[in-house]
Design brief:
- There is one protein chain.
- By secondary structure, the protein is an alpha/beta fold.
- It has three domains: 4-126, Response regulator (Rossmann fold, 3-Layer(aba) Sandwich), CATH 3.40.50.2300; 132-308, P-loop containing nucleotide triphosphate hydrolases (Rossmann fold, 3-Layer(aba) Sandwich), CATH 3.40.50; 311-458, Helicase, Ruva Protein, domain 3 (Orthogonal Bundle), CATH 1.10.8.60.
- 46% of the residues lie in helices and 11% in strands.
- The chain has 23 helices and 16 strands.
- It has helices at residues 11-23, 34-41, 63-73, 88-96, 109-125, 128-133, 144-155, 173-182, 201-209, 226-229, 245-257, 283-288, 294-300, 317-332, 341-349, 355-369, 398-402, 409-418, 428-432, 442-455, 462-481, 486-493, 497-506; strands spanning 4-7, 28-31, 51-55, 57-58, 61-62, 79-83, 101-104, 163-166, 191-195, 234-238, 259-260, 269-270, 274-279, 303-306, 338-339, 374-375.
- The strands form five sheets. A five-stranded parallel sheet has the order 2-1-3-6-7, with helices on both faces. Strands 9-10-13-8-14 form a five-stranded parallel sheet. Strands 4-5 form a two-stranded antiparallel ribbon.
- β6 (79-83), α4 and β7 form a beta-alpha-beta unit.
- α14 crosses α16 (355-369) and α21 packs across α22.
- The radius of gyration is 26 Å and the shape is globular.
């Protein structure tokens, strides 16, 4: 992510904001004057800011004049104006100039950080041009099931028909949608993706259809929704099965005639959009249960394209692994790691309940955590199941390493993290004799065995030992899954950002 630019002639303001953003895991860059900012913006080697936070009154340049010049070259950049002179004229001028928000001094540091986070989210939402220009991740697959998918994309290449993509979570549905767009008559238009399950119900309507200024608290300016942003191109609606019932009705109307109203608006807006939907759920069953409209289902289900799970295309694991290792190395600026035939053999026998996304995250983890350039079986993440058995996979029954108790990625990830607590293979027949353990999952059995082993040694620090190991693995897994972004890792773990920072320091994970 690009840095947050802080513009203020007061060194103390720059210092406290830098420290606050660092705690949030956000990079920042400071400027003492408007001239420095304009010089940096004109530098062809500069990437530019993700968000700008600028004072109004500075020697040698007015913050509102700077806002005007910045907006001329970067119209989508969120700019937060801050000032110690909190008068009405300044506030009005700031918003009329296109400011994202107005921050009066003195300000509460936590509230300022929260405001900047909101601006960052807005910036990411508005990076439509970058999404369009960004090359799609390469689709790889020699398996017959994937060749069927490629043939279907080819047949649909000259069509604007609505497509429904089905498949398990992490199987690559968005990649297929991007490929359908890239090889369609709308390829020159924007490709806009939205996960309907990841956005709160109260905000989803605004995300899809936009809102007018003043439509609700916090709506400081008119904003275009995803349908308007995708005009002339393709709108990808991921996890469509989770869409609320009232929005299903609005979506049906848009698909029928292409017209809709922004939230708080009274003028119909028309958008020429091709819709591609995706879901991991059984929509026919959801229609029977009365939670998904049957008429919307038939409107979306014109062409159905099923994407196979990774366990159905094991012959592609080797090529995908090498591709993701190359990709992760390029992102981190390091030399790509190689993987041994024995380690690949383990991966090919693993079921990957999280599908291709899980393999991609695993390769990123290996790029960071594997100690040598050649990845061996012992270097693989705990969920693969190598830790507790011999490195030769021919000595192990495939069920011991490929079968998991859950088909969901989140469950698999949790089991993988906690599996490190086990240092031995649990004998299934011995477990079956203990009725108290019959209901335990494999990672719980491993944890039970490790705890019993430590307790048998008359140790008095078992709680601290296992808790530290548990927390360490959990945090490292979250950081690997979020590519090292601490704030996002904390959010996905359900803990505070200060908590994850403190734990990283306490556990020596820096």
């Amino acid at each position: 992510m690009k840095p947050i630019w802080i513009v203020d002639d007061d060194q103390s303001i720059r210092f406290v904001l830098e420290k606050a953003l660092a705690r949030e895991g956000l990079a920042s860059r400071s400027f003492a004057s408007a001239q420095e900012v304009l010089k940096a913006l004109n530098d062809p080697g500069e990437r530019g800011p993700q968000v700008m936070v600028s004072d109004i009154r500075m020697p040698g340049g007015n913050g509102l004049e700077l806002l005007e010049k910045v907006k001329a070259s970067l119209p989508g950049l969120p700019v937060i104006i801050m000032t110690a002179y909190s008068d009405l004229d300044s506030a009005v001028a700031a918003f009329q100039g296109g400011a994202f928000e107005y921050l009066p001094k003195p300000f509460d540091l936590n509230k300022a950080a929260e405001l900047i986070r909101r601006a960052v989210e807005e910036s990411r939402r508005e990076e439509v041009a970058e999404q369009q220009a960004m090359p799609a991740t390469e689709m790889l697959g020699q398996a017959p099931a994937m060749q069927d998918v490629f043939r279907a994309i080819g047949r649909l290449s000259q069509s604007n028909v609505t497509v429904m993509i089905t498949g398990e979570s992490g199987s690559g549905k968005e990649l297929v949608a991007r490929a359908l767009h890239k090889h369609s008559p709308r390829a020159s238009g924007p490709f806009i993706a939205i996960n309907t399950a990841a956005i709160p119900k109260d905000l989803l309507e605004s995300e899809l259809f936009g809102h007018e200024r003043g439509a609700f608290t916090g709506a400081q300016a008119m904003r275009r929704g995803r349908f308007e942003q995708a005009d002339g191109g393709t709108l990808f609606l991921d996890e469509i099965g989770d869409m609320p019932a009232d929005l299903q009705t609005r979506l049906l109307r848009v698909l029928s005639d292409g017209h809709f109203y922004r939230v708080g608006g009274h003028t119909a807006v028309k958008a020429n959009v091709r819709v591609i939907a995706a879901t991991h759920q059984n929509l026919e069953q959801r229609v029977k249960e009365g939670v998904f409209r049957e008429d919307l289902f038939h409107r979306l289900n014109v062409i159905r394209l099923r994407l196979p799970a990774l366990r159905e295309r094991r012959e592609d694991v080797a090529a995908l692994t090498r591709h993701f290792l190359q990709q992760s190395a390029a992102q981190l600026g390091v030399e790509p790691k190689r993987i041994s035939a024995a380690a690949l053999h383990w991966l090919e026998r693993f079921d990957f309940p999280g599908n291709v996304r899980q393999l991609e995250n695993m390769c990123h983890w290996l790029t960071v955590m594997a100690p040598a350039q050649l990845i061996e079986p012992k270097d693989l993440p705990p969920e693969v199941g190598v830790d507790s058995v011999a490195n030769d996979p021919s000595n192990v029954h495939p069920a011991q390493v490929s079968k998991g108790p859950s088909a969901t990625e989140s469950k698999a990830s949790a089991e993988g993290v906690l599996a490190v607590a086990s240092s031995q293979v649990i004998d299934a027949t011995a477990v079956a004799k203990d009725p108290l353990q019959a209901h335990l999952a494999p990672w719980e059995l491993g944890l039970d065995a490790e705890a019993r082993a430590l307790l048998a040694g008359d140790r008095c620090d078992v709680w601290d030992e296992l808790t530290q190991r548990f927390e360490s693995r959990l945090i490292q897994a979250a950081l690997a899954a979020t590519r090292g972004r601490r704030v996002e890792a904390a959010q996905r773990l359900g803990i505070g950002r200060n908590t994850i920072t403190r734990k990283i320091q306490e556990l020596g994970l820096e």
